């Protein structure tokens, strides 16, 4: 069964390499980023093909297939509306994480998590594009946050695949229970802080369903 699985993965890698080589850049920022991302994934594919970890192979194949769906949609959206800086930043950070994974492939312990996190980020972006009446990727989603106990906590966040980085990518404008922020679709980590109390980051998918309604989260209060 494992041999069959590896043959199928090797075939998938071959198809992926072919699709990468046929990608034509039109010399703009998005195209350059997507080509760089595909090249990094190509390098990762070769390394993953030599491992015996089925979970890693599965995570990579899912990400590969999702990128083949999302990237053409992003190119079309960018031609019509031009992707915002905030949106581009999330794609750039995903590329940086993939490069870090490729550079440190042997030593990184959360490889499957990183691949799956980027897959879910891409998936939320694609679903949000498909739910837009105009197929616009630039939909910003209002996220409101309450704490499950007490109030007055500041809300911080970062991208899911940045879980091992000690950063605060953004902070909500007000503390709970009135915290809100507009973000682009994606897979995020959010947590609460107040007076030295720091909550455990929680993973949340943020995506548009076309209704324009805010997405409400309730985070656990740090002890």
TrEMBL record:
Q: Looking at the record's lineage, which domain of life comes first?
A: Bacteria
What keywords are assigned to this protein? Coiled coil
Which PROSITE patterns does this one have? PROKAR_LIPOPROTEIN
List where this protein forms a coiled coil: 27-54
Q: Does this entry carry the keyword Coiled coil?
A: yes
What is this protein identified as? Gliding motility-associated protein GldM N-terminal domain-containing protein
């Amino acid at each position: 069964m494992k041999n069959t699985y590896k043959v199928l993965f090797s075939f998938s890698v071959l198809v992926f390499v072919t699709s990468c080589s046929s990608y034509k850049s039109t010399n703009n920022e998005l195209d350059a980023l997507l080509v760089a991302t595909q090249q990094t994934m190509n390098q990762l594919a070769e390394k993953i093909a030599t491992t015996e970890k089925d979970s890693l192979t599965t995570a990579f194949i899912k990400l590969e297939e999702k990128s083949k769906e999302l990237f053409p949609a992003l190119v079309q959206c960018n031609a019509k509306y031009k992707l915002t800086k905030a949106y581009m930043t999330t794609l750039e950070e995903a590329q940086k994480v993939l490069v870090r994974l490729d550079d440190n492939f042997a030593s990184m312990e959360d490889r499957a998590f990183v691949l799956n996190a980027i897959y879910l980020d891409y998936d939320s972006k694609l679903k949000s594009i498909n739910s837009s009446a105009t197929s616009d990727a630039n939909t910003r989603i209002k996220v409101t946050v309450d704490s499950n106990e007490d109030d007055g906590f500041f809300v911080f966040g970062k991208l899911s695949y940045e879980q091992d980085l000690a950063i605060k990518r953004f902070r909500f404008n007000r503390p709970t229970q009135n915290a809100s922020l507009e973000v682009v679709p994606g897979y995020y980590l959010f947590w609460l802080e107040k007076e030295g109390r720091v909550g455990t980051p929680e993973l949340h998918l943020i995506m548009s369903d076309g209704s324009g309604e805010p997405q409400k989260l309730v985070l656990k209060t740090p002890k």
